[in-house]
Write a structure and sequence with these properties.
Keywords: Membrane, Transmembrane, Transmembrane helix. This is Maternal effect embryo arrest 60. This protein has helices at about 5-30, 50-85, 100-135, 145-170. It is built from 4 helices and no strands. About 30% of the residues are buried. It is an all-alpha fold. The chain is elongated. Helix content is about 75%, strand content about 0%. The longest helix is centred in the middle third of the chain and has 36 residues, at about 50-85. The mean pLDDT is about 80.
């Protein structure tokens, strides 16, 4: 059975690894030009997304990136705090936060919240990608948009709730 600290380090490793993958996805998403007229699958121009959808797309990508970066930096800082406190050359006056359980738990919770928010923003960015590529959800004949968005807004929140439950489990250890 892993000790409390190893559970924390494993959870922090998971946060950093997942955030790295999502950050890569955000960068790839930001390189795409949503205003390229040849990069769409819309037949009915009445269903075409306006410039506000492209602005929302970029905004949600930036929010997502900043949330993942925030979360990763907090997690890496906590991992470093655990390493420093376990070091044989540790001096209590040089490092105040000596892996206190409350400090560690709050940091893990804040890091988990950052990842949670980043996933939510990334999901909203993907909804905007769908609307730009397949047609707006407000358009009456955009069944392809609904077919893409409905699973996204069902599966991602389920995965986020699962993720949040594991973060809260690690928080309680």
């Amino acid at each position: 059975m892993p000790t409390g600290t190893s559970v924390h380090v494993t959870a922090l490793d998971g946060i950093v690894n997942v955030n790295s993958l999502f950050t890569l996805a955000v960068f790839v998403g930001l390189t795409w030009n949503p205003n390229d007229p040849s990069n769409t699958l819309i037949n009915d121009q009445a269903c075409a997304a306006g410039p506000s959808k492209a602005e929302d797309l970029v905004s949600f990508h930036v929010y997502s990136f900043s949330s993942f970066l925030f979360s990763s930096l907090i997690a890496l800082g906590l991992k470093q705090a655990i390493r420093i406190s376990k070091s044989p050359t540790y001096h209590p006056y040089e490092f105040i936060a000596r892996s206190h359980k409350s400090f560690l738990r709050i940091g893990m919770l804040v890091s988990g919240i950052g990842s949670f928010c980043g996933c939510g923003f990334l999901m909203m960015a993907l909804v905007n990608v769908v609307q730009i590529k397949l047609g707006t959800l407000a358009c009456g004949n955009s069944s392809a948009s609904y077919a893409a968005v409905v699973p996204l807004v069902i599966l991602v929140p389920i995965a986020l709730l699962t993720y949040a439950s594991f973060v809260l489990y690690a928080f309680s250890r």
